[in-house]
Amino acid sequence: MSNAIEIRGVRKTFGSKVAVENLDLSVPEGSLYGFIGPNGAGKSTTIRMIMSIIFPDRGELRVLGKASAIESKDRIGYLPEERGVYKKMKVGVFLNYIARLKGIDAAAADKRVKEWLIRVGLQETYRKKCEELSKGMQQKVQFITSVIHEPDLLILDEVFTGLDPVNRRLMRELIQEQNDRGATIIFSTHAMREAEELCDNIFMIHKGVKVIDSSLEDVWRKYDPKIMVVEPISRTDLARGWSALPGVRAAEEKDGLIELSLHEGAEVGELMRQAAALAPVRRLEIKRASLEDIFISIVGAGGGETIEQLRMELAADKGADSQELAEVTRG
Amino acid sequence: MGKVFIIAWREFLAIVATKAFILGLLLPPAIMTLLMFALPLLMNKKPPTVYGHIALIDQSGKVTPRLVDAYDPVKQKERKEQRDKAVQEQVAAGIKSMGVDDKTAGAIKQQMDANPAASQAANIVAETNLILQVLPPETPVEDARQAILKATGREKAEDGHAARLALLVIPKNAVEAEKEENGQPKFGAFQLLTAPRLNVEVQSDIRDQARRAIVDTRLTDAGQNVDRVRALMARPEVEEKAVTASGDSKINAAAKMLVPGAFMFLLWISVFSSGQYLLMSTIEEKSSRVMEVLLSAVSPLQLMLGKIIGKGAVGLLILALFSSAGVAALIFFAMADLIAWENLVLLFVYFIIAYVIVACLMASIGAAVNDINEAQTLMTPVMLILVVPMMLWFPILNNPNSTFAVVCSFVPLINPFVMVLRICGSEAIPMWQIPVSIVVGLATVVFMCWASAKIFRIGVLMYGKPPNFSTLIKWVRMA
């Protein structure tokens, strides 16, 4: 299978600031790729270079087999991070305009616009001015602009920000639909939970440098923390001899839970049976590292920042996110 | 190229298909038409007849008969008719002096005669019904002037004749010189005392009649034939014509200034308003963040081109509507020979040059800033380009072929405006200067497009601190 995107040794600077350094990336056709990292990591810069909106200082880029996205703009759908609508324009007219710019002829454009508005539940807004729409509704209209021409490559930059939970689910469905149709999808987010739920592949970037680029399964396998969590029904059972179980290196009590650190190559099935026999438990699970934990463990190990700083950076992102969410629910 | 035109069409409609634009276009002509009809109607209202007495103390004893004759009711009516005729002739002469040939001037006169509203616009001369009251020569002036105080200036027929509107005092020395200066007789002045609110026309009529009566008396005393002297003194008519290859043409100083000025103003208005539209729409796209959505479908250059073409079409529409309205008006008034048709073509050529230059500046500024306030500081140089031609208007029109004017014709940025002034002016300019100035203009256009494309490409994606001019220049140098 050929690659929808090929990036080789790309570097981009803005003045003295290095935005992206020595980047290699291959996005196979038909894949669903998540670009993750905190704000300012270089996600949008990478995406803009893929879109030929800005150009790398060094290195090589191929998009859909061409040297530049400009040559195949009509096959690419792009939802930029900085996006908006013409406030005074009617929704239908706006979508028709964008559809025409994407190379769809006038007659087909209007039909598709109406179909899409129905699909996202905004059929009543066809004749409304864009400024009359809520932020979440505008977001859906913007999403339509990126998919109306059925692109082979769909790039969604921070697509989930500003959406309420219901619309987040709708958006996930829509993205999945596009992927099922055969489109290669790249989406960037700083909300790593979305990425965990959606993508098959992860591209993680921090301060312009790639830190992870592999399938999600490989990520889980590689960053398996080898921790089993046990939650006994009775708190008195917390004091049992958990550390004596086979394959357990250490046991630690934490807020009514026992965290067992396992030896490399521990027999998990046997361990679980024995743990359940030791005391009645409410929960017994092998802990999977969250992308956030993985990100922090990787970056924290190499970078000059403390783990607390990184956690705060990510928390700040979440804060911004939930603030936007609050705005949406208020609106 | 197709996408560029889709953008251009939207940009065009976004301005033209708004109520504000349509109103803005229709309102000025509507007001003009209203004035054209309303003014004659108002002016058609006859001013009230002036009734009253003019008292005369003729200390020379010689002028009285002539003044009595002048204020004979029949003579008064004759004078009023003559004045009406004079006003109409002045209007006709005014039209004629603007360079219309006799045949069309006659046609205008016919039209005016056919249209009572227009011809009676001359009806501003008040009708008079004045009675000359001859007082004995020895009457003290102080006593006679008391009666004037009672006049209100709005006397009616019933009570009017009781009021004294004016008092003429003609001393002996006004008619018979008492002394000589350099061997010529030296005469004294006469007095005219009037009610404070006397109709100006009436006042000047009394003054004129008194002067005339005095001069006539002097002439008669000197043994001259009054009618003959007056015939000799008649002001010679003048016929001015400019000699051109295609024949002599009548010239008119006012039209000489007005027509090029009007065309430059037209150019200025259309360039400025379409440039302004471009600035606003670029800022809107940037601040509403619709910019990058557009850039996902088209390249920055396509977007900029589309926007410039679209707003340029708005400017051309304004230019075409107003210039055709102007030409239509000139044709209606049979003054079409004031405009040379090749100049209209040049007007459009210079519009394109001036517009693209201003549009490039506006697009760069709009792309570089985040909102309209930030644009203000960067607008200063643009305003300079737009203000300078206005200041050059008079110096260049007065002397279209001065070194100054010629140099200005080749200064980039302002040369389209200067050239429009010069080519529409009366003095012919050397033919070579037109193509050279167009080449200079086109070179500026190419440079501006190149520079602004760079600024636009970088600017549209820049948010945050607004750049200053040195940053813009840095952007041009980058990549």
Characterization of this structure:
The complex is a heterodimer of chains A (331) and B (479). Chain A is an alpha/beta fold. Chain A folds into 3 domains: 3-221, P-loop containing nucleotide triphosphate hydrolases (Rossmann fold), CATH 3.40.50; 226-286, 2-Layer Sandwich (Alpha-Beta Plaits), CATH 3.30.70; 296-330. Chain A has helices at 43-50, 91-101, 106-119, 135-147, 165-181, 192-198, 216-222, 268-278, 291-302, 307-330; strands at 3-14, 17-28, 32-36, 58-63, 76-79, 153-157, 184-189, 201-206, 209-215, 227-232, 248-254, 257-262, 281-286. In chain A, the strands form 3 sheets. A 6-stranded mixed β-sheet of chain A has the order 5-6-7-3-8-9, with helices on both faces. In chain A, strand 11 and strand 12 (257-262) form a beta hairpin. In chain A, helix 2 packs across helix 3 and helix 9 (291-302) packs antiparallel against helix 10. Mean pLDDT of chain A is 82; it is low at 317-331. With 479 residues, chain B is of the alpha/beta class. Chain B has 2 domains: 48-232, no CATH class; 252-477, no CATH class. Chain B contains 20 helices and 8 strands. In chain B, strands 2-1-3-6 form a 4-stranded mixed β-sheet. A two-stranded antiparallel ribbon of chain B has the order 4-5. The mean pLDDT of chain B is 81. Classes of the chains: A alpha/beta (331), B alpha/beta (479). At the A-B interface, strand 5, helix 2 and helix 4 of A face helix 1 and helix 13 of B.
Distance between the termini of chain A: 45 Å
Approximately how much beta-strand content do the residues of chain A carry? 25-35%
Helix content of chain A: 25-40%
CATH first level of the largest domain in chain A: Alpha Beta
Number of helical stretches of at least 4 residues of chain A: 10
Helix content of chain B: 55-70%
Main β-sheet of chain B, in a few words?
Answer: 4 strands, mixed
- In the predicted model, the low-confidence regions of chain A spanning at least 5 consecutive residues are 317-331
User: What's the story with the biggest beta sheet of chain A?
Assistant: 6 strands, mixed
Q: Whole-number average pLDDT of chain A? A: 82
The H-and-E topology of chain A, N to C, reads as EEEHEEHHHEHEHEEHEEEHEHH
Q: How confident overall, as mean pLDDT of chain B?
A: 81
Q: In percent, how much strand structure appears in the residues of chain B?
A: 5-15%
